[in-house]
Amino acid sequence: MKERPKERSGTAVHGGRVYEAARRWGIDPDKVIDFSANINPLGPPRGVLVAIENALNAVSLRVYPDTHAFVRSITDKYRLMADEIVIGSGAASLIFAVMHAVLPKRALLLEPAFGEYPRACRAVNVEVTTSLLTEEGGFTPDFPGLVRALKRGRFDLVILNTPHNPTGALYRRDALLSLIDVAEAHDTVVMLDEAFIDYASQESFVSLAPTKPHLIVVRSLTKFYAMPGLRIGYAVCNAMLAATIRSQIDPWSVSTVALEAGRAALGADDFGVESLRVNARAREEFADALRGVGLHVFPSAANFLLAKLPHGSGEALQKWLELERILIRTCESFDGLGDTFVRLAVRSSSENMRLVSLIEQWLKGNAEASHLASEAKANAHD
């Protein structure tokens, strides 16, 4: 394991800037094809739209939000107790609330990583040590090395996510459980972000979290159920820790509309089954097609793919695709990933294949331009 203290600055980079792109291009937002944000293309479920419509009435808008029904939907789904659940306006807000509740002095962060983790650490002046996930290692954590670090008693907090963002790698359950147990024995909190676990729900630790005094599982409804505009998520942990986290969240931080939409989403079982079926097929088809035009594509358990270009930069490809009103996520802002990496959301089959065709065109044009430049340079030397 490579560990190194690191100072952080700046704002986290995110995908999904559809409105910003639409303004820049002078088009309607629905004309933007967004491969930069990992949103389920099948959603939101019909029941969510109905719930939103029903929530928009004079009574619900005139009273303060009540989380009871939404919390009950979580307890019923995962067999939890209400006091083990913390509701927040999306996973990002919960991550910040966890940091203010735990107030760690030293944290261990695996990179590349979601940009809000280091931002949340900066917010409470945490000394961050990073463990780099490498391409050579398949972006898999060095679990024995992490265990050794925890046994040395060096950290108050470990931040993990599975499936991993931005690589899509799903961590082995037994390895994660061993790490959680070691952290428990050494008074180290583990924050496990499961924003994309709905694509591999059998691997979730959400039902186990209340039995582990130092484990906090963060869940998001915005990705899988395709409603990032509503901002709703929840965290699960033991009741005492949940109360501490809850104290760091503003009252009524989630609207009635979001709560009703979230409740409907959790009950959309048929939608979930269909999403898994469609995503698995589309993801493999997309990955195979990208490999076919020369990209190296890493295994993913989520609804996005990390890919490495054979030549050229992600930024150059991004700018070229913007001419087609397509957004992708470049990866230079992720530590451990260079400018040849891109992260691509899995969309509909037709949109995926269109993107592959455009990338193939760009690669051919880029290769030809590089060849001509080399020839010109050689001729100049002659």
Give a structural overview.
Helix 7 packs parallel to helix 8 (173-185). The chain is an alpha/beta fold. An eight-stranded mixed β-sheet has the order 1-5-4-6-7-8-9-3, with helices on both faces. It has a four-stranded antiparallel β-sheet with strand order 10-11-14-13, covered by helices on one side. Strands 2-12 form a two-stranded parallel ribbon. 42% of the residues lie in helices and 15% in strands. The protein is globular. The model is unreliable at 4-9 and 371-378 (pLDDT under 50). The protein folds into two domains: 15-43 and 270-372, Aspartate Aminotransferase, domain 1 (Alpha-Beta Complex); 46-267, 3-Layer(aba) Sandwich (Aspartate Aminotransferase, domain 2), CATH 3.40.640.10. Strand 10 and strand 11 form a beta hairpin. The chain has 13 helices and 14 strands.
What does the secondary structure layout of this molecule look like, with pairings?
Blueprint: E1 3-5, H1 18-25, E2 33-34, H2 46-55, H3 58-62, H4 68-78, E3 85-88, H5 91-102, E4 106-111, H6 116-123, E5 127-132, H7 143-151, E6 157-161, H8 173-185, E7 189-193, E8 215-220, E9 233-236, H9 239-246, H10 256-266, H11 269-292, E10 296-297, E11 304-308, H12 314-322, E12 326-327, E13 329-330, E14 341-345, H13 349-381
Parallel strand pairs: 2-12, 4-5, 4-6, 6-7, 7-8
Antiparallel strand pairs: 1-5, 3-9, 8-9, 10-11, 11-14, 13-14
Helix pairs in contact: 2-10, 4-10, 5-6, 5-9, 7-8, 11-13
